[in-house]
Structure formats: structure tokens, C-alpha cells
Amino acid sequence: RSILPLCDEFVVAVGQSADETLTLVKSLDSPKIKIIETVWDDSLRKDGAVLAKETDKAFSAISPDVDWAFYIQADEVVHEKYHPAIKLAMEEFAKNKNVDGLLFNYLHFYGSYDYVADSYDWYRREVRIVKRNLPIYSYRDAQGFRKGNNKKLTVKLIDAFVYHYGWVKDPRAMQQKQEYFNKLWHDDQWIVE
User: Fold this and answer.
1) Distance of CA 69 to the CA centre of its chain
2) What is the pLDDT of residue 192?
3) Helix, coil or strand: residue 52
């Protein structure tokens, strides 16, 4: 919901699951939301490639007449105070053929909402808005994007932050998340070890 006001349409790729994710997304009840149900390919576990594949599925479901695609992960939020700066940047660079995307700063909350992780181990910036009409695809584990033959995008840094809450959980829930998440990078034997 944090970026819905900036979007004409919002594609949500929902993989098969045993929880209530699909019901929760449907409960948002916005005419802008377009849900695509997907099946994750377990053969793409290595290096998180399945995450990029799922991102590309959502990207391909965006209407072809859309200028920009705003990519956000389930554990990310954009505060509404950044909406004017984001909108201005999208308007300013929409017709600029030398700009492929917009780069955001990041705040990684860690352990609780009172602490922010700040080291070189945490990514400081990521591309979260890309031009829709370019041959752009999700890169590696869906952390970023590339175009054409593995070329980096030409981007502009904007004065906006993405707040990342993926590390704010009860310690038991965090352990479960890590066990599941590592299955997207490693085989079962690695997980056991």
C-alpha cells in the first residue's frame, strides 16, 4: 500500500503457499491491484534465481502502455513523505532516453524498529523504478536489474528512501525465515549442516 498512490496499476505475483498470502492481498481491495498466481520453479534454488524469475513474471504482466515500473519487495515500505520527490523524478526523466531507472537510498531496520543496520554488509542503494519499455530483466536474486546483454542500467539517484523491515522479527520467527530463505540459495544438505 505504501506506493499504491504512485501507481496506475500494481501487479502482485503470489506464489503457491499454505498461508493466507493470497487472501491478504485480495483483501486490499483496490481496482489498481492485478494479482497473478504463480508456481515457483524449485529447480532454480541456486543463488536465489527463482526470485528473479518470479520478479520477471510480474514485470511481464504490467500493461505495455505503462512508462515506469516500481518494484517493491514484501518487506519494503516507502514513506508517503517521499511521494512528491518520486513523482517529480518520474516526470522529469520519463522522456530522457539516457535514464533507465531511479535509484533509492535504503534504511535497514534490524531486530526492532528502533535500530538501523549500517555497515558495508548492507546495501545502501538499489534501483526500484525502471522504464517499462526497455528490455530490462531482474538480475541474480531479484535485488536489482539489468538490460540487454547483462548491462547495468543508467540510473539517477533520487531523494527518497526505501525502509526495509525484513530483519525485524521475533528471534524464533527470524530463525524460521533464515532456514526457509536459505533454501532459495542452497541445497538440502547445506541447510541440514
Assistant:
1) 11
2) 78
3) helix
| Bridge partners, residue 35, by sequence | 12
Helix (H) or strand (E) holding 86: helix 83-93
Contact 135, 124 (CB under 8 A): no
DSSP symbol at 92: H
- Quick one: pLDDT at residue 173? 75
pLDDT at 36: 96
Kindly give the pairing relationship between strand 125-131 and strand 101-110: antiparallel
- In angstroms, the CA 106 to CA 20 distance is 28
Q: Residue 28 carries which DSSP code?
A: T
Q: What is the pLDDT of residue 14?
A: 94
DSSP tag of 160: E
Instruction: Supply the pLDDT for residue 134.
Output: 78
Tell me the backbone φ, ψ of residue 10, rounded to 5 degrees: -140, 110
Which pTM does this prediction carry? Answer: 0.87
Structural contact between residues 102 and 93, judged by C-beta atoms closer than 8 angstroms: yes
Element (H, E) at 171: helix 171-182
Q: In the chain, which stretches have pLDDT less than 50? A: none
